Amino acid sequence: MKDLYQKALQYIPGGVNSPARAFRAVKQKPIFIEKGEESYLFDREGKKYIDYCLSFGAIILGHSEKRVCKAIKDAIDKGCGFGLSTENEVVLSQIICKAIPSIEKIRLVNSGAEAVMSTIRLSRGWTKRDKIIKFEGGYHGCVDSLLVSCGSSLTTLGIPTSSGIPEDFLKTTIVLPYNDIHSFRAIIEKYYSEIAAVIIEPVAGNMGVIPASLEFLKVLREETEKYKILLIFDEIITGFRLCFGGFQNIIGIKPDFTCLGKIIGGGLPIGAYGGRKEIMDCLAPDGTCFSAGTFSGNPIVTSAGISVLSILKKEDPYQELTEKTKYLLESCNKSVKINQVGSMFTLFFTEKDVFSLASAKSSDCERFANFFKCLLKEGIYFPPSQFEACFLSTSHSNKDIEKTKKAIKQIL
């Protein structure tokens, strides 16, 4: 793999096509994967790993799930893409709208970042306001105005924001502490006439699986309704991960918009955003807000998404996944803090609740790096950052869990 990495460095910046894959935070050279089967990854040297990253949460049924692969192969036989509408787009959209009641209409795109970008644009077009509120540690993809205080991707690299973003873009973004009702109310009362939307991950997956408190989310809903500000739930990670629908189904709060991705594409590239009918109808071709993409609603991707969501609806694995995750984490001792929501979890080497990424010390990151390396030697793959969420899939067996529990206990 060293030769392949050196070759990659010649042609690809940093040798990787996404910074998280560089393994810089864990002081390790990246690994190159040959294939995935069920709960396992196999690298180019043939080493086998139990995978708890699962394509950063995009996989829930395991790698190369037979029914999903058949759906993909059947779609490929008909053609890879047409630049025209297909039945699959309609079917997948219908499944999602029925599963998440706040989504009355939906637009399919190609990534979570594209979904967020389009939602922000539509929010500004609808309200005729420019400012957006986001929360510390929330990562909403590579969207210029939101690449500030944004969780694992930049924090892992020690970069507070990205170069190349005009200051005027960042002036439209207000960053507030997560779960801080007082700060939120103070800003809303001062700037409500300038604020188009509030965007939040109801479970912050890129700063350690931290759920927003129910009280906080209720205040967000009440205040945004009061001042005619749009509330956006970024459920790119949590959508269809914690239940058949969004986290909003569990807590009973309806946002104006929802952004989705990951699981709804069955492991293939996808994004989606949807919400109130009267706002969604402002999109072209019916309205003046532009959103388009050559590959949006791709027939192969949508076939994979339909297959995965159909299986999830029929088999309803969510309670079992939650219990398996709880059982796995019993192996951890008091030297780590555990954050868990359903089949999502993170281990922090700290004595504090990490509600601010700034509270994570360099020594905590060093301990995680050592932990990561030890797990890798045992054939267990966690995401290469202590801020990223880990996940379970339905393909993780009792044998996988027991091996992982034993390894974690010994390493700690």
What can you tell me about this protein's structure?
This protein is an alpha/beta fold and 412 residues long. The protein is built from 15 helices and 16 strands. The radius of gyration is 21 Å and the shape is globular.
**Main sheet: strand order:** 4-12-11-10-7-5-6
List segments where confidence is low: pLDDT < 50 over at least 5 consecutive residues: 154-159
What's the mean pLDDT score?
Answer: 91
Query: Overall 3D geometry?
Result: globular
Report helical residue fraction: 25-40%
Overall SS class: alpha/beta
Secondary structure layout plus pairing:
Blueprint: H1 2-11, E1 33-37, E2 40-43, E3 48-51, H2 54-57, H3 66-76, H4 87-99, E4 105-109, H5 112-127, E5 131-135, H6 152-157, H7 167-170, E6 173-176, H8 181-191, E7 195-200, E8 203-204, E9 210-211, H9 214-226, E10 230-234, H10 247-251, E11 257-261, E12 271-275, H11 277-280, H12 299-315, H13 318-329, E13 337-341, E14 344-348, H14 362-377, E15 380-381, E16 390-391, H15 398-411
Parallel strand pairs: 3-15, 5-6, 5-7, 7-10, 10-11
Antiparallel strand pairs: 1-2, 2-3, 4-12, 8-9, 11-12, 13-14, 14-16
